[in-house]
Amino acid sequence: MKQHHLVDALLLFLLGTIAFLGFDDTYAGWTYLVAGVAGLLLGILIAFVGRGQPVVVLAVGLLAAFFVLGGAVALHGLGNLSILPVPDTIGTLADNSVHGWKRLLTTLPPVDGGALLTIPYILGLVTGCLGFALAVRMKAALPPVLVAFALMAGVILLGVQDPSKTALLGALFGAVAITWLCIRGLRARALAAGGRRLSRTVIGAGLCLGAAGLAFLVGPLLPGLAPERTVLRGEIEPPFDVGKYPSPLAGFRIYTKGYQTPEDDRRLYEKDLFTVSGLPEGTRVRVAAMDSYDGTVWRAANDSGETEGPDDTFQKISSTLRNPLADGKQVRGTITVGEDFGGVWVPLPTALTHISFDGPDADSFRYNLATSTGVLPSALKPGDSYSFTASVADEKVSERSESWSGGSPIGDEAAQFQALAAEYAGGGDSPITNALAVAEKLKEEGTYTDGEPPNQQYPAGHSLRRLADFTAKGGQLAGNDEQYAALMAVLANQVGVPARVVLGAVVGSDGVVQGKDMHAWVELRMSDGSWATLDWNEFMNTEKPPEQNAPQPEELVTGKVVPPPAPVRPPATSGDPLDESVNQKANSRPDGFVLPGWVVAIFKYVGLPLLLIAALCGAIIGAKIWRRHRRRTRGTPVARLSGGWRETLDHARDFGVGAPAGATRREQASVLAASPGMDGAPGLALLTDTTMFGEAGPDDAEVEAFWEQVGTLRSSVSDSRTKWQRIRAAINPLSLLPSRLWGKR
Amino acid sequence: MTVTTEQARWFHDTFEKLCDNVEKAVLGKRNVIRLVLTALLSEGHLLLEDYPGTGKTQLARALANTVQGSHARIQFTPDLLPSDVTGVTVYDQGKGTFEFHPGPIFHSIVLADEINRASPKTQSALLEVMEEGRVTVDGATREVGRPFMVIATQNPIEQAGTYRLPEAQLDRFLMKTSVGYPDRNATVELLMNSSVRDRATLVTPIITAPTVTQMAEMADQVYIDQAIVAYVSALVDESRRHKHVRLGASMRGCLALVRTAKVWALAEGRSQVLPDDIKSLAEPVLCHRLILDPEAMFNGVTVEDVIGDLLTSVPAPQERVS
C-alpha cells in the first residue's frame, strides 16, 4: 500500500469511527461500534484489493463480505451457528438489510443490538468501500470526504433526538475531515506553488466570508436546521391508534339541553352541527360506533376481533371502497360541517362505498368497515364538506331475531352487572328476548336528566362506578343517552347478545342536525354477523324526569373494587370534546386549498433542495453568459481581445482542462491543444498575440472576427464531448473563481 | 518605418535557409543553430560552452562558412599574447616607417576557440572590439567593419588549464549557449558519414556580409510593445532581487534581450515581438550574466533554475499598454 493510500485509509477509518460513536445513545453497549468498525475495515480492504477493477467487482465483493462475514460480525449474539453463513444467517442478514432500518427507528432506544447490528455493519461496509474507492480513483479532494459526511448524516438521522457528546464528536469529525481535505487538496493540486502566501490568505478569507454569507442566506431555507435535531425517528408515522382519541360518548352532555356551562357559544343544543343533503329522512348518520368497554368509557377499538382480517380495523382508504355491508339501496349524499362542529370523527351513514372530501386532508382518512365509522386524524373543521355514496339499510331488532352466538366485544370488566342483567331480563327464552326485556325494563323504570338543576347529583360519565350509581338499589335510574346506551350495551352483553354503542343522529326533513338531534343508541349483533339497531326510544324514556324526593341509593355491594369515575373535561367544541389540541389545529388551518401533507413533505425535503440546486445551476450558467457578453461587448478592443482568450481558457477550465497561470498565451494553448477539440487553440493564441502586440493594435473588426473564431473553438470543444460532459461543464463553477485559487486556469 | 509582412516573410525564409545550411555541419541541433544565427543577425557575440567534442568549433566554423566574408580562427592558448589577437605595429626598415599588421580580429567572423585557455590579459584584449567594434593599438584606433562577430568557445571552467572569463568580458557576449551531445539518430548519421573529416567544409556561403548587415538593420525595425519591454524590465529587476543571485542581469543584458527578441520574432515571420520570444531567449541571453550566491551554488542551484523561477514568478503580459 502506497503511503498516500495508507493516509487516506487511516483518515477514512478515523472519520467513520467518529461518526459511528454518534450511535452511542441509540445502541446499548459497544457492540455497534465493533460492527461498524469491522464493516469499515472490510470495506476499505475490498476497495483496496479491487482498485483498478470495475465497480461491479467491488459490488460483488461487498455482497460477499456482507453475507459471509455478516453473521460473525453482526449476528454473533444470536447463537453459535449464526456466525456461520448458513441459510438462517443469510436470511436474517437479508431481512435486516431491508427491514432493519424500520425496526431500528421504531424500537425505543437504547437498542440491544442483536440482529440490528446489521445496520452499522452495512453502513461501515458501504462507507469504507465507497470512500476508499473514491479516494484511490479520484484526484479531487472532496468526494471521499463527502462519503464520510454521508455516513455522519446517516448516523444522525438514525440516531436519537438528544444525543450526548454532539459537540465533541462534531468538532472531532470536522477537524479530521478538514485535515483530510487539506491533505488531499495539497496532494492533488500542489497549492503551495499556486500563489503567494498573502494571496492565498486573502483568497481563503474571501472564501470563508463567502461561505458564511451563503450559509446566512441559504441556511434558513434548508431542512434539518430547526432548533430541534432532525432525526428519522421523529418523522416516522407510528401505527394508527384510534384509542388516542377521546370517546365521543363521554362528551355527550354537551349536546343536551341541560348542559351547564357559563359560555353560551358552547351550548350546542340548538346549534347546527352539520347539514346532510341527499339522504332520505330518517336515515341514521353515525358519528362513531364504540365497540369496546374498558370499565371507564365505551370507545372505538383498534381491532375488535370481530373479523379475521383487517376489516374491523381503521384502514386508510381511497375514494372508493368495497364494503361487504353495502347490500342495500345506494344513496348519494353530502355533509357540510357547521360552525360548531369539528374533530376527528366523521359523521357518515352505514355501509360507505365512496367518499370524496372537499377541503380536508383526505389522505389521512381511515374507515372501519365493521363499525362503519370514519376517522379523519387531521380533523374536520367548520365549513368542510364531503360527498359520499352509501347503502343505508337499517335493520331493527325484533323478538324473532337470533343473536350472534360468538364472543362478546367486552370482557369481564362489567361482570358485576351480570346479576342485574339477569334480574332485568327476567328469564326469557333467548338472548334477544332477554335483551329486549332489559331495554323495556330500563325504559319503564328510567328517568331522564342532563344534570340540570336541581338534578346536579346525576353527573355525566358511564364508567362502572357511574353505572353502579345509576343502577343502585333503592335509587332511581336517572341519566341521559350516555348512561342509558352504555348500560344497555353492558347489560345486553351480559345476557349474551354482543352489543355496541353508536353516537349519531337521525336526519330530519331539512337535513340540519343540531345538538338536540344527537343521540346514542345500541346495536346488537345478529346471528348472521350483522348489527341491528336498538333505538334509544326502546330503552330510554326522555319524557320522564327524576323524582326529587326519591330515596338515596344503596351502594352496590360487589366483590370487586369499583374504579373511580372517569374525569370528563368540558369539551372545547362539540366534535371532539376532550381533544382541544386537535380542534385548535383544525381551526388554525387556513381556508381554501390546502396542500396534502406528503406534497409538503416532498417539497420540503426533496423539492426545496432540488430547487436550490437548480437555482444555483441557473445562477452559474447565467453568470457565465453574462461574463461572455461583457467580455465581448464592453471595454476597449484590447480588453475585448484579451477577454476572448480568457473566455477560451474559462471554457476549457469548465471541461476540466487547466492552463498554467502567468504563462504566455501560446504556452497555455499548447497545454489546451492536448485535449479533444482544442486543436485550434495554438492558432487562436497566436492570432491573439500578434493582434494584441502588433504596432497598430486591434481594431473593432479584428476583435469581432477574433470572437467568431473563439465561438468556433468553443463549438469544437463542446462537439467533441458527450452530452453529460457538456452539462457538467455548463454548471461547473470553477471558472468563475479566481484563477489563483486553483493554481491553474 | 516598420517591417512589412513581405519583409518579415523574406527574413523568415532566409533565416530558415541559413539554418538548413549550417545544419549540414551540425546535425540535430536546430534550436542551437537558430540561437547562433540570432546572435549573428543581432550583431552580437556568442559564447559556446560545452565539454570537448560536442561540436562547438564545428558550429562556429559552419557559421563562418555560411557567410560570404572574411573569417579567422584564433586558438587561445596560455601563451597567446594580446598582440596575437589585435595585431602588431612593426618597423619597416626599407620604408623607415611603422606599419600596422592587423591581427585575426580584423575579420567579419572571428572564431575564438577555447577562449578560457588564454590568460586574462589576452582575454581582455577582446573587450574593446567586442563592445565598440574597433581596436586601439599603439594609440591608433581602427574599425573592424560590419558585420563583426566573435564566436568564442570554452570548456567548462572546472576543466584544468582554464581561466575564468571576467564578468565584464562575459557581459559583452550577447548569448551563451551550449551545443550538447547529439541525439541517437544524429550520432548514427554522423558515424555513417565518418569519412567526412571536417563537416564544416560541407557548408558553403549562401549569404553575403552586406546582406547580414541588411537583415540586422531590418530587425531593428521590429515593433516591440511597451508591455513587453516592461516584462523584460521586470524579469531583469527580479533577477537582481532573487534570493539565490548575488549579481543580477545588467542593463546590457536588458538591451541584449530586446535585440535578440526582435530577430527571433522576425525569424518566425512576425513583425512584432511576443512574450514568447522573451521567454525563449531569456536563458541564453541572461544565463552568463547572473552570478549566483555561493551558498545556493553549494546547494545545487543552477542559473537555469533561477531563470526558470523568474519566468514562472513574473507573469507574462496579456495586454498591450497602448
UniProtKB/TrEMBL annotation, chain A:
Q: Protein-glutamine gamma-glutamyltransferase TgpA N-terminal domain: which residues?
A: 13-390
| Classification via InterPro entries | Bact_TGase-like, Papain-like_cys_pep_sf, TgpA_N, Transglutaminase-like
- UniProt GO molecular function: peptidase activity
Q: Which GO terms describe its biological process?
A: proteolysis
TM region(s), chain numbering: 7-23, 29-49, 56-78, 114-134, 141-160, 166-186, 198-222, 598-623
SUPFAM superfamilies from the xrefs? Cysteine proteinases
Alphabetized, the UniProt keywords read: Hydrolase, Membrane, Protease, Transmembrane, Transmembrane helix
Which residues does the annotated region (Disordered) include?
A: 541-585
Domain (Transglutaminase-like): residue spans on this chain:
419-535
Q: What is the superkingdom listed in this entry's lineage?
A: Bacteria
The protein, known as: Transglutaminase-like putative cysteine protease/multisubunit Na+/H+ antiporter MnhG subunit
From TrEMBL, chain B:
Q: Which residues cross the membrane?
A: none
Report domain ChlI/MoxR AAA lid positions: 238-307
Q: Which GO terms describe its molecular function?
A: ATP binding; ATP hydrolysis activity
* Record InterPro entries: ATPase_AAA-3 (IPR011703), CbbQ/NirQ/NorQ/GpvN (IPR050764), ChlI/MoxR_AAA_lid (IPR041628), P-loop_NTPase (IPR027417)
Q: Which family does it belong to?
A: Belongs to the MoxR family.
Asked whether the keyword Magnesium is assigned, the reply is: no
Species the sequence originates in: Nocardioides albus
What is the designated name of this protein? MoxR-like ATPase
Enzyme Commission number: 3.6.3.-
Instruction: Specify whether Ubl conjugation is a keyword of the entry.
Output: no
Group of enzyme by EC: hydrolase
Question: Which keywords fit this entry according to its UniProt record?
Answer: ATP-binding, Hydrolase, Nucleotide-binding
Per the database record, which ranges form the ATPase AAA-3 domain? Answer: 45-175
